[in-house]
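call fold(seq) -> tokens
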Amino acid sequence: MAAATICGCGTSTPVGQTPFVEQEYATANKVNEASLSFFHEVYKTVGKNDNMCVSPASASWALSMAATGARSTTATQLYKALGFDSPDAEAINSYQQKAIARLAMHNDEKTTIAIANSMWINSGFKAKKAYVKENEKFYNAAIRNCTFDADAATAINRWCSENTSGRISEIVKEINPNAQMYLINALYFNSRWKDVFLKKRTKEQPFTKENGEQIKVQMMHCGSRAGYFENDKVQMSEKPFDKGAFSMYFILPQKGVTMDEAANELARNFYTWRDSFTRCDVNLALPRFSADYSTSLKDALRALGIEEAFTGAANFSGISDEGLCIGDVLQKTFIKVYEEGAEAAAVTSVMLEATSAGPPVIKNLTLDRPFFYAICARETGSILFIGKCGHPKE
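ret:
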């Protein structure tokens, strides 16, 4: 698979390796906690679905582009929900720029991590030059000025497809008549496991859904040394990708623990569980699965405290002297988990409209009933994708 780095228009950009300083790691921890809260709020609105997947990272970058032009309470609410202590746009944008660059540097022959941003501006709408330049500078955003018509929707969707390796081909069905600007992030991840599942060990096995229905799935099997944790609520293990820069985590509720209860525990304790890992031999049984998912994030973001931005009281005066508010925040995701590795993609659209080592034990983690998963950067813990698999489909 071809490697790619962060870009604003689909072309690669060299990225230097700049280490985080202590304060930036502290910021990353707060952003990670906000990501879990984001996941939990979305889960509470759509968790009854068999499958769901969201990208906190993609949402954070798209909303940060919008927040760059927010002022007063609007900015404070946006940044707080994203995990930032103060509405210091320049400091936050510098952090996001560095975080994106550090993810992008892990591209190699076995791992692709591509991040792209774009800003689509309706012809006749007067966006402030300083705002546009800020997003070009910190997010390498591709700037597109065009008439918001059917051709614009086609162009936006083409851009999304090009920047997700064709996995997300549509984010805008039609242009909202009140829309003045679309801020879009595209995230694409594709990596090979450090220890692949042997196809000859994949076999048909039963998987029990939340409603008790049993279905047949293609269950992959792999034994390896891995991080493992369990308590009376969950079993959790890690499966690293490639050179170890990224890992996928699997969280299986213990029998008798509901998915809702486990989701609540996950939102509060994911990093505590991860930091409590014991290295041991883990026999992992994982169904092959893939899923497409789309949702409006508006209700979840409101629940996280972003209220003013969605109302006529919104202050986006850093973008334009014309009145603006966020009309909607849409996200589409794709994930595929198979013997050789995993592939995932996300597009987030913000539409702005007018007005330690343990004993030598062997653990078994058989994911033959609904479970949660997350793909994270190991250095910072940044959650690229997190979701629920309740009905594995290929």
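The longest helix spans residues 22-46.
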